[in-house]
Amino acid sequence: MNHKIFSVGNLTLVLIISIFFYSTLTHAQIKIPQVSIIQAIEHPALDATRKGIIDTLRESDKNIQIDFQSAQGNAALAAQIAQKYVGSNASVLVGIGTFVSQALVAADQKRAIPIVFSSVTDPLSAKLVKNLQKPGNVVTGVSNFIDPSIQFEFFKKILPRLTKIGIIYSSGEPNSIALNEKMRKISEPMELELIFAPANSTADVPQATLSLTNRVQAIFINNDNIALSALDSIVKIATQNKIPVFCSDTDSVQQGALASIGPNQYEVGKQAGNMILQILAGENPGQMEILFPQKTELWINPLQAKVLKIEIPLDLLMKAKLVKNP
Amino acid sequence: MNSIQFFGALEMGLFFSLITLGIYLTFRVINFPDLTVDGSFPLGAAVSASLIVSGVHPLTATFTALLAGGFAGFITGYLHVRWKILGLLAGILTMTALYSINLRIMGRPNIALLNEPTLFSYFKASQGVLIAITGIVILVVFLLYRFLRSQIGLALRATGINPRVSPSYGINIGRMTLLGLVISNSLVALGGALYAQAHGFADISMGTGTLITGLASVIVGESLLPKKQISWILFACVLGSILYRVTIALALNTKIAGLQASDLNLITAVLVILAMLLPKVRQKIRLDSGAKS
Fold first, then answer.
1. Domain boundaries, given as residue ranges, for chain B
2. How many CB atoms lie under 10 A from the CB of residue B252?
3. Closest C-alpha among A315, A302, A45 to residue A154
4. Can you identify the CATH homologous superfamily of domain A148-262+296-322?
């Protein structure tokens, strides 16, 4: 017989499933506050935010159980993780990234569990909240948005004759598209022209960079995961063409960006962590205002400035943190 | 595993069973490995989400999404049948093009549908979504069952089983391949449209791995219910899809052997490889023992 119920394949499947069941049964449940974190994808900036959240929770005197899962950029997986968290009666749900936060809101149908999002650039268009001052529901959180005019002013201090900035971004990232629109609006009154170069994957980034080289005086990477992942190739091409690279991500200066100004992702995580602690202490998330990064950090790479023959004003050098040995 | 997680997995399995049925049609019925689905799943989500946001009735939006998916399948079929482009490549080409098209349709990479009217707004009761999707899946399975037993359906099945002999019975292989691809991708886009509405967003990245999860579901279903009748096979697809999701839900709960969520893709691939190898290994063992005796 070819089709027996007790075939090798079936038995293997049954075995696998029963092992899973067994291991879930032995997983003991204790009644302490449970904070369940779901992260969109593993990425240095998001990892730093998560570390900020977890450190804040660990440093508090409360005994808190922390759950963490990564959705690996997979929407279906995000939904299943969210269902797991809602079902296990978590005290607070935490979403790091846009679509995982949306998945949490969708899973928390009865609006019974507070949700804190983090690293979402535009919580309004993501429909996570209706109002930034008084979210009203069980959802609140920290946006990683900082006003691009602060960034542009900083660039102009370093390059006083700056008029054309190239932006490399990935067309598939909601955060980047939201930022591009804000930057476009702000750039006009500041007499800056922005030239956008999209890249669909890290492999497209060198070409996007090359397309900018003879048209811009500087390149700016504003919180874009794909561009940041391929930063080395951007810096290499840009430096050959004597074009400085600015970033919003503070770690990037170590990799050869000239300077960076942006939210400290770890601090963003700490802000979210404090919100979680407040909610655990009994505060109503519906009354908690959406927070924005409190601290922007300046980083400058003097060695790269020397290579590019750019003189950086002394007052900036005093204010900024300097990279010594990149 | 808690009950919300279990019912959630059940619901996800039912949503993805539409995709599994579509992949069964191409992969098994017409014997065509169709990668278009990685693009037509987000296409369905994109079309329905953008229409709903601009005020179109959810039912019309869902139906338009289904048509859009069918059109994507048609393009792949046309490239393959008319211009003899390798099937796998034709699918990859359409899928690649769909990435840009989906971005154009949505205008941005992510459209939120939380608080928008959707097909599932009418099912407010507890487990309303589950009941609604169960109904839809039963309807789709019934229609597919009727179709696959009709004259055209039989011709479609003959195309995959024996493409050499079928033409002598007056079956146009090219047209049947096209038809299979159109129906399959309509189903996948319908799945995408419903999924986006139930889960509150359409995202450009949601199509990654659609084919491989669907394939894994088909194979899990087949190995659990190894039957030849079309009714059982369709049921096996749905069952396989549900089991796949339940397995993931279980995997999310375990901490055995250092497994973590990021191992999921590897486990899926290994599962598919094992399921595809086992019948051959068994056959080989049988042949060897036959030779000895």
1. 3-253, 263-293
2. 23
3. A315
4. Response regulator (3.40.50.2300)
Q: What is the ipTM of this complex?
A: 0.77
pLDDT of A326 higher than 50: no
Here the tokens at position A217 are 């005086």
| CATH T-level topology, domain B3-253 | ABC transporter involved in vitamin B12 uptake, BtuC (1.10.3470)
Between residues A266 and B259, which one has the greater pLDDT? A266
Domain ranges of chain A: 32-145+266-287, 148-262+296-322
Domain over A32-145+266-287 is classified CATH 3.40.50.2300:
yes
Q: How far is CA A301 from CA A181, A310, A313, B151, B224, in A?
A: 29, 11, 13, 72, 61
Q: Do B261 and A126 touch (CB under 8 A)?
A: no
Between A94 and A315, the more confident residue is: A94
Nearest-Cα distance to chain A for B209, in Å, is 9
- Kindly state the helix (H) or strand (E) to which residue A191 belongs, with its residue range: none
What is the value of pTM for the model shown? Answer: 0.82
User: How far apart (Å, rounded) are the C-alpha atoms in residues B155 and B149?
Assistant: 9
* Contact yes or no for B199 and A20 at CB 8 A: no
Contact A75 B112 (CB under 8 A): no
At position A7, the amino acid (one-letter code) is S
Query: What pLDDT digit, counting tens, does each position of A256-304 carry?
Result: 899 999 888 899 999 999 999 999 999 999 999 999 998 788 899 999 9
Q: Residue A167 to residues A196, A202, A317, B117: CA-CA distances in angstroms? A: 5, 15, 25, 36
Give percent of chain B with pLDDT exceeding 90.
61
* Residue recorded with tokens 């090798």: A8
| Nearest CA distance, B178 vs chain A (angstrom) | 29
Q: Tell me the pLDDT tens digit for each residue of B44-59.
A: 999 999 999 999 999 9
